[in-house]
Each structure stands twice: as structure tokens, then as C-alpha cells.
């Protein structure tokens, strides 16, 4: 279960690496992903939400019993 979100994390990092936030502004990935007003593409925003929900599911006891919804 600890690695069930790893694929999403790698996709998110790859998507963020191609944005202006990281390329032009030279900001870290974590900072770009955590912005309230995103300067990133809608694809990256969707990946970010899915990744955060995956991580949230790891602490939710109901999801821990049933298993995290896989990637």
C-alpha cells in the first residue's frame, strides 16, 4: 500500500517538469504543486488532485481495509 501512489507521483513530477512554473520561474516542484491559484496545466491539476486523494486514502481506515483504489 505504501507504493500504491508511486506511479501517480512520478506522472505528476513529469507533468510539473514541463510547466512554466518549473522551467521558466525555476521554482521547486513542491511549491508549484501546492499553489492555490495554479500556474500549471489542467492535466497537472487533475494529476495533483488524484495524487492527493490517493495519499489521503492511505490514512483513511476504511480505505486501508478495502485497499487504495489503484492507479
From TrEMBL:
One GO cellular component term: mitochondrion
GO aspect biological process, one term: mitochondrial respiratory chain complex IV assembly
Pfam family name, one: Pet191_N
The keyword Coiled coil is annotated on this UniProt entry: no
Keyword Disulfide bond: yes
Keyword line: Disulfide bond
Recorded coiled-coil stretches: none
Family: Belongs to the PET191 family.
Name assigned to this protein: Cytochrome c oxidase assembly factor 5
Organism: Zizania palustris (Northern wild rice)
Lineage of the species this protein comes from: Eukaryota, Viridiplantae, Streptophyta, Embryophyta, Tracheophyta
Amino acid at each position: 500500500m505504501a507504493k500504491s501512489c508511486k506511479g501517480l507521483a512520478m506522472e505528476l513530477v513529469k507533468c510539473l517538469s514541463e510547466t512554466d512554473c518549473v522551467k521558466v520561474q525555476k521554482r521547486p516542484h513542491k511549491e508549484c504543486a501546492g499553489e492555490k491559484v495554479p500556474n500549471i496545466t489542467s492535466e497537472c491539476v487533475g494529476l495533483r488532485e488524484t495524487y492527493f486523494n490517493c495519499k489521503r486514502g492511505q490514512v483513511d481506515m476504511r480505505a486501508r481495509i478495502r485497499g487504495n483504489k489503484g492507479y
